[in-house]
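Action item from last meeting closed. Structure (271 res):
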């Protein structure tokens, strides 16, 4: 065990595999759009386009900052200190930091630009600290998971953006119940003495159930952005791309984490 490599190895990425993945993603977009979106809406208004574009800019920027900060934290040894700490302490600190900075961002008006961006940066820093141990996995696994995440979120966002108004907004309640089940399944092994079969069930709920739930959240959050853009055009609320981006960023992070775990499990099963 002492001689085993610390970083998990994965299969190298080839251009052929990337091309096949891209083709699969493109096919998935067509299939998902045809199945979920039989009745499409008219074109987006100027306000809807502007808020959607700004939201994805902040989402992409936040994810890049999170990845760079997580890599720096990993190189500094923070990931190892996190892994050796009490898991409940790590969970509590990460939840307090993430929720605190997220709520601070939500309740800061867009007019306070500096304060809002600082809180947004603090939120991304908290996400980076939580994600830094993922760099123990091989770059191939992380790259494939990132590519698949972009494909999944991109296809579902396209479906949500082209669907009729408010088609997926009624998913809020079921998705909240689903994420509660996923969270309990993730925490159960830490709190309860479970057998092998029970662990397998909770792991499947956490991984595959989490993929389904957060995929649904992508549809919901995309339509929520467009709904808020229409309210903004009517003067009922102020458009806030930073607030909208946080939901999509959390969706992508949770999908990415689960894909990393699934790909790592598949790699171990082949050995």
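Sequence:
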């Amino acid at each position: 065990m002492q001689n085993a490599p610390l970083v998990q190895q994965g299969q190298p990425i080839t251009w052929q595999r990337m091309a096949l993945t891209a083709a699969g993603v493109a096919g998935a977009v067509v299939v998902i759009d045809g199945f979920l979106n039989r009745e499409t809406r008219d074109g987006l208004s100027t306000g809807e386009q502007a808020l959607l574009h700004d939201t994805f800019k902040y989402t992409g920027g936040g994810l890049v900052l999170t990845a760079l900060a997580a890599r720096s934290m990993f190189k500094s040894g923070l990931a190892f200190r996190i892994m050796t700490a009490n898991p409940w302490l790590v969970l509590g600190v990460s939840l307090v930091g993430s929720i605190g900075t997220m709520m601070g961002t939500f309740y800061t008006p867009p007019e306070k630009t500096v304060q809002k961006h600082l809180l947004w940066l603090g939120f991304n820093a908290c996400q980076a600290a939580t994600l830094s141990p993922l760099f123990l996995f091989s770059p191939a696994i992380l790259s494939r998971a990132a590519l698949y995440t972009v494909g999944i979120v991109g296809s579902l966002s396209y479906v949500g953006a082209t669907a009729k108004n408010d088609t997926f907004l009624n998913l809020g309640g079921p998705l909240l119940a689903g994420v509660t089940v996923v969270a309990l399944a993730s925490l159960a092994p830490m709190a309860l003495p479970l057998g092998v079969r029970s662990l397998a069930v909770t792991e499947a709920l956490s991984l595959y159930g989490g993929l389904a739930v957060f995929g649904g959240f992508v549809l919901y959050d995309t339509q929520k952005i467009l709904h808020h853009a229409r309210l903004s055009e009517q003067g009922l609320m102020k458009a806030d791309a930073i607030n909208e981006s946080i939901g999509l960023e959390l969706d992508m992070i949770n999908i990415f984490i689960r894909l990393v775990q699934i790909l790592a499990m598949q790699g171990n099963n082949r050995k």
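Note appended to the action item: Residues 196-233 form the longest helix (38 residues).
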